[in-house]
Automatic annotation (TrEMBL), chains A, B, C, D:
Keywords annotated in UniProt: Amino-acid biosynthesis, Arginine biosynthesis, Cytoplasm, NADP, Oxidoreductase
Reactions this protein catalyses: N-acetyl-L-glutamate 5-semialdehyde + phosphate + NADP(+) = N-acetyl-L-glutamyl 5-phosphate + NADPH + H(+)
Protein name: N-acetyl-gamma-glutamyl-phosphate reductase
CDD domains in the record: AGPR_1_actinobacAGPR_like, AGPR_1_C
Residues annotated as domain Semialdehyde dehydrogenase NAD-binding: 4-136
Catalytic residue list: C150
Length: 358, 358, 358, 358
């Protein structure tokens, strides 16, 4: 069968990437694209790279317009999805690329986002190690899915295997991310102007304020539960993360360098073995051979997370370097992969492991 | 008086930047520029941006050519400077922009560089806190100066105040640097091609192998000596650094994100006060006001290190973000600033605090 | 059936892009990849973005290794393909991404390339207007195909419709191209280093020396033949092109701005009509609506040439701005599209019209 | 004496660059900086690279605030300067970096800008060949100066020598410019976002609509007057320019490729001689030796226009490639250089010929 699809926020970067991927997906028909201020305009005016969708016109984002589709993607600023999803009915598969349904902790939500808390949906990172299994299992048959924060899923995928195996200490994580500006969306802000970013590395959200921090904590609590019993995320969860993103002059991409202390006298084989066990059978999350580290160019346009692992005994830390395309594996690709799983399609349908490089 | 100057390695990036700065310096005359394979060619062919030096021709790099100048800058690959400096005599001021004379520990040299060890020269980072004083004092009247490694001095300046004040623990430092490729010089290597670096973030020397690590350890041992007694650098010095550089698509610049655990129940005021005390009177190393963080564009072409400081109580870490132009404050500017001090000139002569932005 | 394929020059940029496209092509099996100095190494070491081809190892490029495949792609420096193709036999489809078989004129070859002249093969730009038809017709059933020069095909596609219709004068063409460095390959040259190209626009081959000039002349002679009788290219062919490429800081892409005088009192409708007639039915060459002009980001990774057309009456010139991904529509995509036609497959198999943006 | 200076539009890119240059100028004191919506804020918040001006606060832009300074720089959107300048009095030197006082032709103004026409001021491009002399002479003692449009002065300087000497035909000029986005200012527009410009070449104002076209026509009419009698600019002035700017991913810089037909059987010596005669004695406009062409990196931060000249006999065109930093020689440097001339200071005071590269 062919599933009918609606994509809201279709004039933005996340919405555009969902459309780019779905345009090559054999099992869906993109029937409706919606926007707010751009409603009524041709989609191609805002996504001039999507030539195969030249025939589509942006509708207004309303519950009525979104209703009646088999699948609805929401690519809206946080706080906006609730008004639409209630009206969509249980038969539709709804995938939110925004933040509204990611967090399980009301405390975290209030501290990092504020406003009304929304119930958590199934988290759309299939390869995550959670409570002795993979997140994939929870996605089978799901009708409500929360696509991940791009930085959050990158760091969670980087460290979860080590946390689950008990070879690193999640109580003193340090992660620094080189990120492209497309993750911030098409917002008209001075700090996102090309003149500000070209030729410069610009830090932001320094000192523990980034909204993806509680999302990582939540994922690592779940990973830790595989060996330490179930836990809940919160100020006392024992997960501590120093998290610093740095905007660099590339449109897309995240290169996350994440480190954590080695614990329990873990041997090199035990450490490397943790990641091998977690990802050895995965298609879209790949551990590179020893001594190799990924570049973001290698995953541009691909749904792949590439992971390089170093064991620095002098510093007593594991160093995990992970490359992800923030718009694909970080957002739209994760959404479509989760969709495939939820619907029982082959998981990789419409997705590629090959990047566009150079 | 006007000092006569010779610059070796003048066709490379470090040599070119030394020349760019010296060309605007009122107290020197650039008399000689030297190179190896490019000897005999006009300098302008290799440094087409140095229009005011169009009249200079590259000589061969030999002791004879370098002799007889008041000041000699060496911008050569490590291991090459020794053959020239012995012949230069004590009256000349010799400043080595290479690594040969930076390290005090034979063990470190052998582990990270190899080959013959060379005696350490006075380290050319005037603002560094060392043993209750500033490195500046050691530079006065010096005749042999080792300009710093660009990444090393950036990280050392970032953390030395906190180490000296005893408010952070140098035993678990994590630093990740976004760096431009000019730091790697004009080497013809595939990984330095524009096609490889444009649009991509590329890690290298992951896992504790970068040669600037012992240089940072050495600086922090000296900083710690201000409150803990003198120490020597080495495997047992108690300094541990996880150090990961990431090449990003900007020609110049280092943005170092360095974190270390808060210790001794240090208050916010004590922590911030450590950096304020260290740099409050400095021109070229500036602590930004609370909540502000630097971009590399802000220091492009300038001799300024700009430092932003965050105290992340949730992660129990101080986060120091420092922006430096690797070729200026990281190399050539540090060399000229040190030269000014050694010669008794005004320290800022020929140097600027203002970056070229956007 | 599934066609067996060999790709030579597989460690370079053009070879890598052929592989990236073929990896998603349902009708081929990539059986062999070859290189020279890198023979014996895993392909993935040189093409780390091609995760689905991780199992392949580079063989040496020899006639023996290339023999026995249904299709052979040659991505070699010019002058090298001849030694292999003679031995390949007539049953194999051979597609040369190099320059050896593009030019029909011995004089042009000797002036712009030198060395032995090779017989011209069928030119692999299906949409080109030639002698009242499309180049596509000549590709049907071909067994030897010359993939185009990326800049050449971009400019030829830009202007051929106007020349064929007699509304512009090919005797005074001016074209200036913003190009990414990947078109120059992985050569280790100082001017291709990232430090040289980041933040800078660098012209090269200024003043009529670029090797793609005779290739454009040849295409426009063929286009003109549709209304003016057949012609041959050469110094007296009446085609004059001022051609200036400028390297800009993007890994891929060509944005060609091509202008030519309006002739024969052509009306706006006649001018626009020429391009509409030529490309109205094409999938991979698209004329944008009036007032719209393409960006290279819109075609990144896609096989699309997007064309914007302006009629500047004050300057009496037609201005054609065309965006192409040099590695796809400019090289590898053109090669695969031509392959599809030659083999009787659906022309767009394995190719996409949608770019990867932002 | 020290001149007191006020700079309006000080939070923008042009204003910031005027300040960067003036901060190093020995004969001026920056007393006042003004802005509109940012009034009341510290300058450093908007120009974080100008560390030496950290003490300045933005005042509101009013006639009262600007009055009483020896020199006033206006860096405002066009149409806004008139309200201030009338009130400034004749004793102040006023330099407008905006467009209001550049054009002599009311017709041109109305066609390309619209709104009230303002009287032309002395045009601030000292090296321009005009009516047998240099524009420099007109700047001596001037009290009202119009700084040039960055693209306009780049193209005018490129071609004026050939027009003045009668060796090229200004009736069929084609110029294509690779430009950085800083020329468009800090405007919050989607097409200026980093995500839109990184990795892409984006044309704009295609087909003869760019506002710098009449400014170039005016300069070339003046240049032609040196051999053909005085002329006026306008639709019948015989100057025809096809002008296409292309935004490329570099913050600053213009690389203009300008071509015009060779006329009057001009020999190579006559052609090259025209540019040599015009610029042989100039410091800030330099003709490169035969076969050499400039890169924008070579003039970054410098007040230099570097010109490469090719004579393409096959195309019967002269090709002039000129590199300029749009914010320096294109705007702020031209303004300060003109100021120096007007005040009788050494022309190069506070300006450099050396670029910041790589």
């Amino acid at each position: 069968m062919t599933y009918s699809v609606a994509v809201s926020g279709a004039s933005g970067y996340a919405g555009g990437e969902i459309l780019r991927i779905l345009a090559a997906h054999p099992d869906v028909e993109i029937r409706t694209v919606t926007a707010h201020s751009n409603a009524g305009q041709p989609l191609i005016r805002h996504q001039p790279h999507l030539r195969s969708l030249e025939h589509l016109t942006l509708s207004d984002t309303t519950s009525e317009v979104l209703a009646g589709h088999d699948i609805v993607f929401l690519a809206l600023p946080h706080g906006q999805s609730g008004q639409y999803t209630d009206a969509l009915g249980d038969t539709a598969l709804v995938i939110d690329a925004g933040a509204d349904h990611r967090l399980e902790s009301v405390t975290d939500w209030e501290q990092f986002y504020g406003g009304n808390f929304h119930e958590p949906w199934v988290y759309g990172v299939p390869e995550l190690v959670v409570a002795g299994a993979k997140q994939r299992e929870r996605l089978i048959g799901a009708s409500r899915i929360a696509a991940p924060g791009c930085n959050a899923s990158t760091v969670s995928l980087s460290l979860a295997p080590g946390v689950a195996a008990g070879v690193i200490d999640p109580g003193d994580i340090v992660t620094v991310l080189a990120v492209g500006p497309s993750g911030a969306g098409k917002s008209l802000k001075t700090n996102l102007l090309a003149s500000e970013i070209l030729g410069s590395a610009n830090p932001y959200a320094v000192g523990g304020t980034h909204r993806h921090i509680p999302e990582i904590r939540q994922a690592l609590v779940a990973a830790r539960a595989t060996h330490a019993g179930a836990g809940v995320t919160g100020p006392d969860d024992g997960i501590r993360i120093s998290f610093t993103p740095v905007l660099v002059p590339m449109a897309r991409g995240i290169l996350a360098t994440s480190t954590a202390p080695i614990v329990n006298d873990a041997t090199d084989a035990e450490i490397r073995g943790a990641w091998e066990a977690a990802y050895g059978d995965e298609t879209f999350v790949q551990l590179l051979p020893e001594g190799q580290f990924p570049r973001t160019a290698d995953v541009l346009g691909a749904n792949t997370a590439l992971i390089g692992l170093a064991i620095d005994r002098a510093a007593n830390r594991v160093v995990v370097v992970t490359a992800v395309d923030n718009l694909v594996k970080g957002t739209a690709g994760a959404a479509v992969q989760s969709m495939n799983i939820a619907l029982g399609l082959a998981e990789g349908t419409g997705l590629t492991v090959n990047g566009v490089a150079p």
